[in-house]
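We treat protein structure as text, and this decision shapes the records that our systems exchange. Because each token names a local backbone shape, the row as a whole describes the fold. An entry from our holdings is shown next, in its original layout:
>
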Amino acid sequence: MTDISPKGRKLINALGIPGILLMIWLGGFYFSIFITVVVVLALKEFYSLYRSKGIYASLTMGLVGSVFFVWFYHFEPYLNMLVVIQLAIVFVLLLLIFELFSKKINPVSNLAYTIFGIAYIPMLLGTLIALRQIDMTYGTYYTIAIVVSVWICDTAAFGFGVKWGKKKIFPRTSPNKSIVGSVAGFISVLAFFIILAYFEIPSLVLTMQDVIIFSIISGVFGQLGDFVESLFKRDAGVKDSGTFLLGHGGVLDRFDSLIFAAPLTYFYLHF
């Protein structure tokens, strides 16, 4: 995102975690607009990764798909999977027609990358909106709990990994991530949910099963989301997905764990 001014980036960094928590707290249109911006920026970064390899995803169709799916989650948080499949088929057909009129090389690769990008970011990360809509209906705060737990996991994994981590967990994709760090991240998340359950917060009643499931979602699958994004970056030969956030890489780098954690949380609660 080289077109973003340094002042603009500093403003984004200053808002940081408090700004995100505020958007979650407000919910509704405010949160949906926020996630729309996040998804659009993340998808743009993702589509830029493989241009050096001659793969040109359709940013136009990707953005259309992003906005569509994100706001579909807003208005229809209780998903009818048959409707989702039908809409996905229609969208794929539109993509095929769009690529037919495109003059870019590698049409098959372009199509595959475009479709994968939509499935990977807006369809998965967009479930945060459906989850928050359900929270607002029942007066619960699962969205905040999951987002905070992912941050706790990342922080603990980094801190313990830097100090005591020697053996790497996925050296091929994440040479700086250690087994010690990953275990510490999971234990920290488990402790977080145990504390929430112990204090019996009225808006977030957790059974022991919930504690275990949520800990696995954030502490295991959340980290896997990070590793998967690292796999893409390593394949593309880049360190960060972008430069939108000063000192913190791109937007996709900040939300990669939630790409896995958000839909799993939604499906656990909804189904």
